[in-house]
Amino acid sequence: MTSDVHKVRKSPFPAGFGRLWTAQTVSSLGDGVTHAALPLIALTLTRDPMALAVVTAAGTLPWLLFGVLGGALVDRWDRRRTMWGADAARAVLLAVPAAAAMLDVLSVPLLAAVAFLLGLGGLFFDTAATAYLPDLLRRDPALLERGNSRLRGAQTAMSGFAGPPAGSALLALGRAVPLLADAMSFLVSALLVRTLPGVPRPVPEARESLFRQARAGASYVFRDRLLLGLALRPAVGNIAFLGVETVLALFAHDRLGIETFGYGLLLTAEATGGLLGAGIASFLGRRLGTGTALTCTAAVEGLAILGLAAAATPYVAGLALAVCGAAMGATMVLAPSLRQAIVPAHLMGRVASTSRMLAMCAAPFGAFLGGWLATTYGIRSPLYTAASLLLAMTAITATMTSNRRVEAALRAAAPAGGGNHPVSKDPAKESESDVV
């Protein structure tokens, strides 16, 4: 059964989408540079594993501490200004450690503080971009899928393929060089975003405290079974995937006989699959319906990790990771596109940040679980556990994100009377059966 998402003729992208795509592509390249360079820069300052872990973890803390509140602020602010302001601030911020590196006064605490503030800027940029895109693309579900597919593909290509080797190469020229390169990428992105077309701001709600508005956004997610199902997938998925990631290098070395170069190829196989999955997401949605496609990609992720756990050769492991990456890539296009199509504009920032926060909170638990399982039961046990979690999550959320629920939500969110802004029932005021 084909979802209503795909029953319309293809529409052209508005002119502003090309600039947004270019801005995010350039910024993703800079992110990839810093993602590779920052840990290596930290390694030139200390060999203490806990100190290195602090630098790595600092970038995720803003989502854990301010995720929902950040979404509430984005729903109050102009989203285009929030995006270019966040990028401009991050460009200026990166000049600080770059100057410290040139003056030879760089330290681990400074790197951790920079990582935290970069993460905070990313929280505001990503949430604002997620909320801005539906209005830019006229809340057209099919156009949102195509747009997210292009954005996701560019992000994977830049941050997963081009950025990391570029970061390592630039670091050879000096510790400040990759930081300055990322600063330039943020500056270019900010200038491009500043030229994007304005979109109508959501009708302001009755003046409430920031905490009440944040709670209303979180409540909206938890009371709508479709949105809750979409949020549970990355949350449970992060527990599973971080459990795998924690032991993957050790598993590859001890069980598959893979050295450093081969391990890089394994990760490349997963990223390649992610590009393919992002490219075929719309096709899957057309053939299966968005709800069924999401259930299938979740099941494929679980089966692929099961194949990885049982792999006896590097080739089988690489194939399993490529298949898993493809399923993840398709999911990361279909799920956000659906959420952007059905959530009212005035709630989009809070709903997006709530979903992202759930996923980010789950990640540290997954990493701890993977390490404990490997220590207690053996190196393959985190992989088998991850596969079981993913398959159980697929069974639990299958009815929550079914084609029937998706199509009902799209009809409820369809423009009324030819207007530009969709209407949507608030699950806090309607019964569950009415919402979905």
TrEMBL record:
Per its UniProt record, what InterPro entries does this chain match? MFS_dom, MFS_trans_sf, TM_effector
Q: Give Gene Ontology CC terms.
A: plasma membrane
Q: What GO annotations for molecular function exist for this entry?
A: transmembrane transporter activity
Enumerate composition-biased segments (Basic and acidic residues). 423-436
Give a yes or no for keyword Transmembrane helix in this entry.
Answer: yes
Q: Where in this protein does the record put region Disordered?
A: 414-436
Pfam families the record matches: MFS_3
Q: Which UniProt keywords apply?
A: Cell membrane, Membrane, Transmembrane, Transmembrane helix, Transport
Task: Decide whether keyword Transport is in the record.
Answer: yes
UniProt protein name: MFS transporter
Q: Which organism is it from?
A: Streptomyces capoamus
